[in-house]
TrEMBL record:
PANTHER family: L-RHAMNULOKINASE (PTHR10196:SF93), SUGAR KINASE (PTHR10196). Residues 4-242 form the Carbohydrate kinase FGGY N-terminal domain. Residues 252-439 form the Carbohydrate kinase FGGY C-terminal domain. NCBIfam families: rhamnulo_kin (TIGR02627). Its EC number is 2.7.1.5. InterPro entries: ATPase_NBD (IPR043129), Carb_kinase_FGGY (IPR000577), FGGY_C (IPR018485), FGGY_N (IPR018484), Rhamnulokinase (IPR013449). The active site is at D235 (proton acceptor). This is Rhamnulokinase.
Length: 488
């Protein structure tokens, strides 16, 4: 029986999960978990990539100690960030985080030279300052010139482990540098950035064999023999594979540091309405598209926790938030002011003050204001997606760590007026494992994978309770429109 290992690293934590298929059921066990965060070094907010790779080896050593001598291994992480590699094959510096301030104002600057419309027609990708396109635009030109290779984070980790370089497609699409129609890196955009196409590795589909871990690592660490598979290396792409959806008319919400709400489509949707509403068409595993929007997500709650020195656990925060009436405040969660404020609590309070709302003071009140506003935003985007795609949405599948927040699941069901299914919370790692299982032939395809997930993990169901959601959504839309007008 094959041992499958998912390395899944998000912006706030990483883990190694061991997965197996036993009597038709997926069995999952956490082997190692570690924290992740960026710190300000050498003028930028940077990830400590060597430390993350060290954690992978620690996890693999634990497996070996348990007696596991062989495994299949897949790596997924957050998207858009990259590592520059010099001629000697070594990184030119620690990768800069997408929350670094270097890209502020860069969309406006760049799109004054190439129109937004042209970029969207080529790429179908939403305009977010964190996209690799704007990061590379803001990059030190000398470093970029020295760089022989540019690898996104999971591709870089795969390269360190195996010595093989690829540009996995689900993650590469988030760069906003892929041409949807030619299904490759867009020559004009690369030219514009003074990047030679050879600096990027070959575009590779999820589910491809990458290589074995290089022998030098076995000399240093006592780890199992690992066969590395290039999975859907973008964590959100893996989360969608790991979504236990059934039938046709469903949407997903991958809920973690970010809330990614969207639909799995067979064709991209780049029509004017999608462009106007800044919807994205990220590439999914097996030729699908993730038609979605980024919503600020639990980052705001994570930051409230950090600002309050982790006085309450996330469960306690949710509990206190749930005891208060919702919608006392409405926050425009996608206001860029919440991207990376010095102090999230103060930023939320200032936003409420400036919009003449009652100012939330306690941790419970602040968390309550975020949850209510997230649920409103989810409901709004579900309506938008129906309008843009012309398709119905009958159920929402919430996966990821945020699917454990019961009150948020119920609020979302109430406001959207549809059934919400919540779980599994480890959908990303599960999606990572399933792509490996499909590659090895143990699972036939994504449909079978999703059926197994449904039969293997507890999934909670939330039916909408009677609320006057139409009035609430109208008030919300008016508030958001006023806010964005104010920002123009
Ligand atoms: C989620 C995620 C999102 C991406 C953001 C930045 O972890 O990968 O999909 O937009 O992080 O990389």
């Amino acid at each position: 029986m094959t041992n499958y290992v998912a390395v899944d690293i998000g912006a706030s934590s990483g883990r190694l999960m061991l997965g197996k298929l036993e009597e038709g059921k997926l069995k999952l066990r956490e082997v190692h978990r570690f924290k992740n965060s960026f710190t300000f070094r050498d003028g930028h907010d940077r990830w400590d990539i060597n430390a993350l790779i060290g954690e992978i080896f620690t996890g693999l050593e634990k497996l070996k100690q348990e007696g596991i001598t062989e495994c299949s291994l897949g790596i997924d992480t957050w998207a858009v960030d990259y590592v520059l590699i010099g001629p000697d094959g070594e990184k030119l510096g620690d990768p800069i985080s997408y929350r670094d301030s270097r890209t502020e104002g860069k969309i406006a600057e760049l799109t004054a030279k190439i129109s937004k419309h042209d970029i969207y027609q080529k790429t179908g990708i939403q305009f977010l300052e964190l996209n690799t396109l704007y990061q590379l635009y803001a990059e030190d030109p000398e470093l970029l010139r020295q760089a022989e290779h540019i690898l996104l984070i999971p591709d870089y980790i795969g390269y360190v482990l195996t010595g093989k370089r690829v540009a996995e497609a689900t993650n590469a699409s988030t760069t906003q540098l892929l041409n949807l129609h030619e299904r490759g890196f867009d020559k004009d955009l690369l030219d514009f950035l003074h990047i030679n196409p050879s600096q990027f590795a070959e575009l590779t589909e999820a589910g491809t064999y990458l290589g074995e871990i290089q022998s030098k690592w076995y000399e240093k660490y006592d780890i199992p023999a690992c066969r590395v598979i290039t999975v859907a290396t973008h964590d959100t792409a893996s989360a969608v594979v790991g979504t236990p959806a059934q039938g046709e008319n469903w949407a997903f919400l991958s809920s973690g540091t970010w809330s990614l709400i969207g639909m799995e489509l067979q064709e991209p949707v780049c029509e004017p309405l999608a462009f106007a509403e800044n919807y994205t068409n990220e590439w999914g595993a097996y030729g699908t598209y993730r038609f979605l929007k980024n919503i600020m997500g639990l980052w705001m709650v994570q930051e409230i926790a950090r600002n309050s020195d982790y006085k309450l656990s996330f469960a306690e925060m949710a509990d206190q938030a749930g005891q208060l009436p919702f919608f006392t405040q409405i926050i425009d969660v996608n206001d860029p002011r919440f991207n990376h404020p010095d102090q999230m609590m103060t930023e939320i309070q200032n936003h409420c003050r400036e919009t003449c709302q009652e100012v939330p003071e306690s941790i419970g009140e602040l968390t309550n204001s975020v949850y209510g506003s997230l649920a409103l935003r989810y409901a709004k985007e579900l309506e938008q997606m129906k309008r843009i795609t012309g398709r119905d949405i009958e159920a929402l599948y919430i996966v990821g760590g945020g699917s454990n927040v019961e009150i948020l699941n119920q609020l979302t069901a109430n406001l959207a007026g549809i059934t919400v299914y919540a779980g599994p919370s480890e959908a990303t790692a599960i999606g990572n494992l399933c792509v490996q299982m499909i590659a090895s032939g143990e699972l036939a395809n994504v449909q079978e994978a999703r059926e197994r997930i449904r039969n293997s993990f507890a999934i909670e169901r939330y039916e909408p309770q009677q609320v006057n959601s139409t009035d609430m959504l109208e008030a919300y839309n008016e508030f958001i429109n006023n806010q964005s007008l104010g920002r123009l």
